[in-house]
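Limitations

Structures in this collection are predictions, not experimental determinations, and the ligand pose is part of the prediction. Treat each record accordingly. The example that follows, with magnesium ion as the small molecule, is included so readers can see exactly what is and is not provided: the inputs are given verbatim, and the output is the predicted complex.
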Amino acid sequence: MRINAQKRTISVKLVYYGPGLGGKTTNLEMLHRQFPEKQRGAMLQLDTETERTLFFDYFPLSLGTLGGYKVKVDFFTVPGQSFYLTTRRIVLQGVDGLVFVADSSPDREEANLLSKDDLIANLETNDKKLADLPHVYQWNKRDIPGALPVKLLQKQLNPEGAPAFPAVALNGEGVWECQSALLQQVFDTLRAQAGGARPASG
Ligand SMILES: Nc1nc2c(ncn2[C@@H]2O[C@H](COP(=O)(O)OP(=O)(O)O)[C@@H](O)[C@H]2O)c(=O)[nH]1
Ligand SMILES: [Mg+2]
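Predicted complex:
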């Protein structure tokens, strides 16, 4: 979170994390479409022809004002494939909130687990802990035949009991809910911090 007291701006960074082809880019595309044109900036997409994100996807959003501050939200995805480890670490720098997009496809059980381990390790290199980071889970691709049971996904990926939502990102289902639940958590955290230690300038 970057707070500029002089310019009276707050910048929030949200990251969509998860295994390759789990639906992170689809989430950003759906979100971008749902925000009013006036508020959203252009979406930057770096996709390869195999539909995998080469580096990351990004778009900025002007959210309005909060306590006299203009709030800007930056949405990012990370590339899922193992060889983009460095990119994932860089995208995670300064993250304020995270959506873990899990793939409910039966053959992606292991990929989800590896991605969660990778997330924890990469947060560590940024001196962060998942427990201190506002985050939500998205159980995506609920439309897939034989989808992994939500109970199993909860048990394997979300032992901490963070908010979690079933989704079919391809149809936009669950996309908005994840984003708004996450922003809620991020601003609750911000308010709690501001309550504890108010910025000197005002
Ligand atoms: N069946 C199904 N396919 C989805 C869903 N969400 C995304 N996809 C598809 O899964 C593939 C990978 O999605 P993408 O957003 O590129 O994944 P990313 O690698 O995590 O960015 C694409 O072909 C999407 O159309 C979903 O909810 N259900
Ligand atoms: Mg992608």
